[in-house]
Amino acid sequence: MAMISAGGTTGAGLVGIGLRTPHLAEIIATPPPIGWLEVHTENYLGGGPAPRALARVRGEHAVSLHGVGLSLGSADGLDRAHLARVAELTRRIEPALVSEHLSWSIAGGAYLNHLLPLPYTEESLGLVARNVSRAQEALGRPLLIENPSSYLRFRHSPIPEPEFLSELVRRTGCGLLCDVNNVFVSCRNFDRDPAAYLDALPAAAIGEVHLAGHARNEAEGRIILIDDHGSPVTDEVWALFARALDRFGPRPTLIEWDTDVPALAVLLGEARRAEAAIARAVATGGPRAVAA
Amino acid sequence: MPSLRELERDLRVALLGGDDGPAQAAIQGDGLDPGARLGIYRHHVITTLTAALQATYPVVCRLVDERFFAYAADRFIRDTPPSGPCLFEYGAGLADFLAGFPPCHALPYLADVARLEWALQRALHAPEAVPLPMRAVEGVAPEAAASLTFTLDASASWLASPYPTDRIWRANQTDAPGPEVVDLAAGGARLEARRQGDHAIFRALDPGSFAFRRALATGANLAAATGAALAVDPAFGLAPALAALFEDELPVAFTCTPSHPGDQPCQSQP
Predict the structure, then answer these.
(1) Which residues in chain A are closer than 8 Å to B5, comparing Cβ atoms?
(2) Which region among A34-38, A284-288, B217-221 has the lowest average model confidence (pLDDT)?
C-alpha cells in the first residue's frame, strides 16, 4: 500500500490532486509528479473501467478515498449495504486516507446528492458519533471527517461547528479533514471569522487539508459564496491555508476541482503553489511545523 | 422544535419541490429569505441529478433537446429520487417514466431508446465475471442436459423493440457522419447489450438466438430456451447456438437437475 510522504522540507509528496475522469488516461499513461490522488468513493463501487483504472493508478500513487454518500448525519441511520460496498473497496484499494463529511444526504430512502447541513445539537452529536463509530468499525480504520460549506443554518443549533467537530473526535477517535475553502465559504456566508474557526479546531486531529475554488453569487443583494470547486484557489483562501499550516503543521493537502475541470497542468500548478506554501511554513515555522 | 428525523424529512420534501413551509420554519434567515437559502440547495440537488441523467441518457437528451430533457428530468427526480449514492446506478426507471409522460407521446420510440441507453449504462458498471469454458458442461450427462440452466454475464441484457432503436441510437451519436432519416416503419430491433473490455456495446441478433439467450437469461432451462427459439425460428439449431453462447463468453455458471433420483445435482465450480 502506497503511503503519503511526510513532505520533508520542500512539501513535495504531501500535496495531492483530485483524480477526475478527463485526466484519467493522461495520468495512467504518464504518472505526474504528484504526492497522491484522491477519488470520490461512490464512483468506484461498481465493476468495469472505473475500478480497473483505479487499480492501475494505485500502483503508481498513494490513493485517498473521499466518500460523499455515507450520510453520517442521517437520523435514519447508515445504509448498511452501501457501507459494506465502501468497506469492500477500502479492503481492495488499501487507501492511505479515508474521509467523509459532516453532513447528511439520505432521508426516507431518498439520496439527495448534496452534503446537507445539520443542526448542531446534542441530539445530532449523539447520532453522528454513533454513525461514525459504526462506519469506522465496518471499515476497520478511523475516518477523517470534513467540515461542510454552509448556505443556511438552523434556528436551533447551539453548538459552534468547530466545537461539534472537536467533540466528535473525542467521542469516536475520528480525525478531521479541514477544508480551508469550506471554512472560508461558511464563515463569510455567516459573518464569522475564519481564522478563529481554524483556531478552535483540535490541531492534532487534522489528518488532511482540502483547497478549492468557490463562486460568488448574489441573492437579494447579499453575496453568497458557493463551494463549486470550479476555479483556482482564491488569494484569501491561500492566506487562510498559510494560517492553517502555522496552526496544524504540514498535513496531506489536496487540490479539488470538480466543475469546468481544466487541463491537468492547471491542477499541477495549484499543487506546486501548495507545496511552496508548505515549504515556506516549514522554513519559518516553529515546533508546530513538523509533519505528523 | 422538530426532531432531527423530522427536520431531515421536512428538508427532503422541500428539496424535491414539495411544501417547504416546515423546513423554512427551522431555518434562520441571516438577512435572506429562508426560502432563498433552501433554493440554493434545491438548485444543486436538481441540476446535479439532471446532469447525472443526461450523462446516462445522451441520446434521449438529444432526441428531445436539452431544455425539454431538463423539464422531464425535474419531474422524474421529484417522483423518483435516487435510492442510493452511486449515481451511475440512478435512472433505471426513466424509460417507464417517459412512456407514461404525456408530452412524450408524440415520440413512441423514446422509451425504448431509453431502455437501450440504460442497458448500456448497466453493462458498463456491472460486476466483473469470469466466463465459463464450454468444456465445463461437457461432463454433464446427456439425459440431464435438457435441465441445464445458466447464469449469464451480469453485464448482458436483451432488448426487443418494434422500432429500429439501434439505428436511432447510431444516428444520434455525436460522431455520426451526418443527419440521417431513420424510417420508423423499417422494422424493429432485437439487441444484445453488454460490456466488452472497457466499453458497453450492443449488436443485433437473429430472432432465434435472441429468443434463446433471453430465455436462458430469465432462468429457462436448455429445453425451454430451445423451445422458445424454435417458436420464432423453425430452423433454429441448438448445437451451434450453444457453441456461440460459449464463444461469446456469456455463461459464468450453470446448474442441472439429475435425471435419476438419488444422483447429485450438478453445477459449475465457483
Answers:
(1) 75-76, 107
(2) A284-288
| pLDDT, tens digit, 9 for 90 and up, residues A252-292 | 999 999 999 999 999 999 999 999 999 999 998 754 544 43
> Residue B143: its pLDDT value, please?
86
Instruction: DSSP for A2-46, please give it.
Output: ------TTT-TTTEEEE--GGGHHHHHHS--S-SEEEEEGGGGSS
Searching chain A, which residue's CA lies closest to the CA of residue B44? A114
Residue A291's pLDDT is what? 42
Please provide the distance, in angstroms rounded to a whole number, between the alpha carbons at the two ends of chain A. 19
Instruction: Show residues of chain A in contact with B84, CB under 8 Å.
Output: 69, 79, 81-82, 111
Write down the pLDDT at residue A232.
Answer: 97
Q: Where are the domains of chain B?
A: 1-107
Contact call for residues A243 and A236 (beta carbons, < 8 A) = no
Residues of B in contact with A258 (CB under 8 A): none
Nearest CB partner across the interface for B37, out of A76, A116, A151 = A151
Nearest-by-CA chain A residue for B2: A156
Sequence spans of domains, chain A: 15-284
In chain A, alpha helices (H): 24-29, 49-60, 80-93, 122-139, 161-172, 180-189, 194-199, 235-248, 264-284
Indicate the average pLDDT of chain A. 94
C-alpha cell at A182: 469550506
- Pick among 2.60.120.260, 3.90.870.10, 3.40.50.2300, 3.20.20.150: CATH of A15-284: 3.20.20.150
Of A68, A76, A151, the CB nearest to B85: A68
ipTM value > 0.90: yes
- Option in B5, B33, B45 nearest A220 (CB): B33
